Amino acid sequence: MALVLALPGCAVGPDFHTPAAPETNLTREPLPAATEAAGGVAQRFNPGADIAGDWWALYRSPQLNALIGTALANNPSLDAAQATLLQAEETLRSDQGLLLPTVSGTFNAERNQASSAVTAAFSQGGGDTKLRPYTLYNASLSVSYALDIWGEARRTIEGQAAQAEYQRDELEAAYLTLTANIVTSAVSVASLHAQIDATNQVIASEQQLLGILQKQVSLGGVAQAQVLQQQAQLAQAVATLPPLQSQLAQAQNQLAAYTGTFPGDFQPQDFTLDSLQLPADLPVSLPSALVAQRPDIRAAAAQLHTATANVGVADAQMLPQITLSGQIGHQGVDTAMLFTPQTLLWSLAAGVTQPLFEGGQLAAQRKAAIAAMRASAGQYKNTVITAFQNVADVLAALQYDGTEQQAADDAASAADASLKVTQAQYQLGGQPFTAVLSAQTTYQNAVLAQAKARATRLADTAALYQAVGGGWWHRQDVTQSCCGVIP
């Protein structure tokens, strides 16, 4: 008995340990304290800084906040992820019953008629051997318990708990991806509005220049070839407008899908670059924190945990299984006397089952479980490496984004100054009007490049928040998992 009570304390198979965070730096070169102060804003890198759960609020856009709120409430992908998590949690609760005995109650009423011929054959003195029909009542309680000596049930529960944690992390990843995608799409909408405005102004300048050249041709001032060249340049400028308009419509439709709305029912948000404020402080998570924060890394660790537990299940299935069972009840022909000591019956049983020949199935299943565990370990390592690459890429992009925007700002300032000088010279008769229009086109193209650079900086900032985990552990809109949150 002491041995039986002691054995359930052990469980065969490998015990899972969360892999240690890699001892490495996020980037090859040390990060600067801040990016270039492009547009008057320098983004500061803050190593080890915490991340707000609603990080998108740092863009200071009420429209963006409202849009994300609607998406979090209505997005069908989130509904599916939440339902999948609930399924995994309920399956875990079901598996936890493996550690408890099963109890069932039974009540039977059976009407019988014994054979008179059989009774007469065994009777000694003859006489009336006919038996009357009778009813047999049976009320019993059965208990069965499989001793979890080798930990098969506990490994099964452990694996399902890890699977529930995996679904939890998948839900967090869905939240993070959705919010980041909405921010990126809003930035794209704002950028496309700016590009369309700048393109329309370029087209207007090109059309005005074409009109002047056509008048000059009629007066014999310029050759027809210049008009044809300008017509080609105008056509090229006009051809750039429809793709931008198409991209804008598609971006608006994508925002509709994110909010769980059909495109025909969606009210587009006219985001502008000026309506989105660039966050000035950028969190840079330490490697150990990054591993604990990113939902995809946590999900990969949960899958590795499940695969490790499955090895223990396969090991236990190859060992002897002990089952205890018992039954107690009453049996009688009269319900009034059914629960008396004379009608009591009971039984106790113990059984041991040892697989002897399974055609190699159990051994193959164990090898398959070990292979699955090794595959999960490789997938986990690959996920960590990809995550670190993702963060390094975004940090590098943010540094160069500031330089790019500063160059675009300088180019726009220079083009603006050139336009003003050309306009002043034209007023004094020192430049033809065509030079003014050319300077206007140069300026509008510089404004177009400036808008793209601003949008890239805004989008890459959102990519950084997504890359470091998005601060999901501070949100209150989802119940935290059984394993707690990041301290």
From TrEMBL:
Q: Which UniProt keywords apply?
A: Coiled coil, Lipoprotein, Membrane, Palmitate, Transmembrane, Transmembrane beta strand
Q: Which InterPro entries match?
A: MdtP/NodT-like, OMP_efflux
Q: Does the keyword RNA-binding apply?
A: no
UniProt-annotated location(s):
Cell membrane
> What Gene Ontology terms describe what this protein does at the molecular function level?
efflux transmembrane transporter activity
What span is annotated as the signal peptide, if there is one?
Answer: none
In the UniProt record, does the keyword Lipoprotein occur?
yes
Q: How does it sit in the membrane?
A: Lipid-anchor
Q: Which GO terms describe its cellular component?
A: plasma membrane
Pfam families linked to this entry: OEP
Please name the SUPFAM superfamilies in this protein's record. Outer membrane efflux proteins (OEP)
* Chain coiled-coil ranges: 154-181
What family is this protein classified in?
Belongs to the outer membrane factor (OMF) (TC 1.B.17) family.
List, alphabetically, the NCBIfam families matched: outer_NodT (TIGR01845)
| Descriptive protein name | NodT family efflux transporter outer membrane factor (OMF) lipoprotein
